[in-house]
Specification:
By secondary structure, the protein is an alpha/beta fold. Among the domains are: 67-345, Alanine racemase (TIM Barrel, Alpha-Beta Barrel), CATH 3.20.20; 374-451, Methane Monooxygenase Hydroxylase, Chain G, domain 1; 590-625. The protein is built from 23 helices and 21 strands. The strands form three sheets. Strands 4, 13, 14, 15, 16, 17, 18, 19, 20 and 21 form a ten-stranded mixed β-sheet that branches. α8 (153-164) packs across α9. 45% of the residues are buried.
Length: 633
Amino acid sequence: MNDEILQQIQQVYGVENWSAGYFDINPQGHIIVRPAKNDPRFVDLKILVDDLLTKQKLQLPLLIRFPQLLTSQLRTLSNAYQTAIAQYSYEGQHYPVFPMKVNPRREVVEEFLRDSSRCRVGLECGSKAELYAAVAQDQTSESLLLCNGFKDEAFIKTALLAVQAGKRVTIIVEKLNELKMVIKLAQQTGVAPWIGLRAKLYSRGSGKWASSGGESAKFGLTTSELLDCVRLLKETKLDHRLKLLHFHIGSQITDIKRVKNAMKEAARVYAKLRQIGCQIEFLDIGGGLGVDYDGSQTRFESSVNYTVQEFANDVVYVIKSVCVDENVPQPNLVTESGRFMTAYHTVFITSIRDEIETFAQDKPVVTIDDDDPQVITELKDLCDGINGKNYAEYYHDALEHKDELHTQFNLGLISLEDRAKGEVLFWESCARALKESEAENFPDDEFEALKKILAQKYLCNFSLFRSAPDSWAIKQLFPIVPIHRLNEAPSDYATLVDVTCDSDGKIDKFVDLKDVKETLELHKWKDGEDYYLGIFLTGAYQEVMGSHHNLFGHPNEAQVVIDNDGRYHVTKVVPGSRINDMLLFARYDKAQLLESYRKQLAVRVEAGALSKETAEQLASEYEAGAGKGTYLE
């Protein structure tokens, strides 16, 4: 690959900006994945996908999980806080916990806990199902098991089971009534968990989730409710079990200034509680540490204007400053940075299956006949006459002629063949005008809009709602890059549509360093040729938030690790959903469906429209179809 093409490719896709050192492009033009930041070992993603499709007999779409990236991110987070603690001589320790809501898959949870002895990593649960799974996980004696979210007695009883198994369980109180339930069950059972209080701060985060913090936040105790909880704990002689103060100002905080303000306020609340006799040992700063999805390092919603080290430095410095000022002990710091811990570890692979034409493409040159309507001949003249000086004027004329063409058709003055001929000429005029505009350094906005209209629409074999739902729901940007052919300069502009029967099933916003692109640069695609696209940084929330729209199920999944000599191993394969799986999800009974279909065939046999042999063959095909995958084969 020559340097000029590499520079162009990096500029187009920005891999070095958003990859955090995990992804790169090799001389063959393939995306490579490293097990740790800037590690010399790597796996060639194109070769890996080919092997999974041929040797493992998997089909696209395909979710590839790299568990070593989970460990690397956890260690990056832990090292950032250890560095800050040493730099500022902070007296507390760092306790990372993984919020299971971010990605509750067993493979993810167990991978984090496998490294728990080094980083003291624990778990955070927000539901009874998450807690039930967490209770049975092996954790080190130092790590925490935090219980967030709204709770009933069944939730609290399950938490007490974990206490009796020797875990450091902390039930974080969201409402005063929850504390009353905890106290009642502790008195009845003689088993008392650690207790945390979640404060509702005035400070708010920034970005899409800013509203999850502040005075109108869904979760948290007001100042008066905090004092009521402290009073109740002292009355019941359980105040010695109050160990933690928690707060959360929002996910994916884009602006570091908001973090500083929140830490200052939370540290003051902690200090005042210590001064009234609360022996709190842990300050849980919640999540919020963001991921730079677009690589711009800005306050844009899909980016952050700080590094993890800057984040940790500000947290440690601000909290220490307040504690010194208030003359209280410096608490242990708990973080719930689930997005940062998981986003990088999965790559979703899909392929282009077809092209959806929105205008006439690759049509033969239009010839003008003597009896063609005047609007057709004028469109032909415009099309042939476009050049670098008149392209804008001729483009505007073509727009007027297109309106005239449709008006005459609606009045019955021209034929369907005339309309087809005129439309071909109009779109060809647009394409030529756009080509001339691209030679300008600063083309008008209308030609940027025209570029999107003329862009290819490629049908990709995946469900947006299943595998990248945040792209649809909150317009989250995910890096999308071809995993091969990156030693060639892209020549086409495109948007992507999925296989669902939903007009929202499309991606038409793409990562760019300075802006948001409305088209993605791709290589020329030809029917019958493999062209694989990777959607990166989908490891946080996407798996658990994905829906079964149109009854498209989970994609095939593979887990891959890279050993010390640089070879990769497929350690686990999880088959994707079958049609039968989705029928059960929608509460259909496979046997009942087959019986109903057989009855319909029997009616046809009785009427003489089918033979018994044909009917039996059709029934067998219908039955076998339930075992097929839900995506295109």
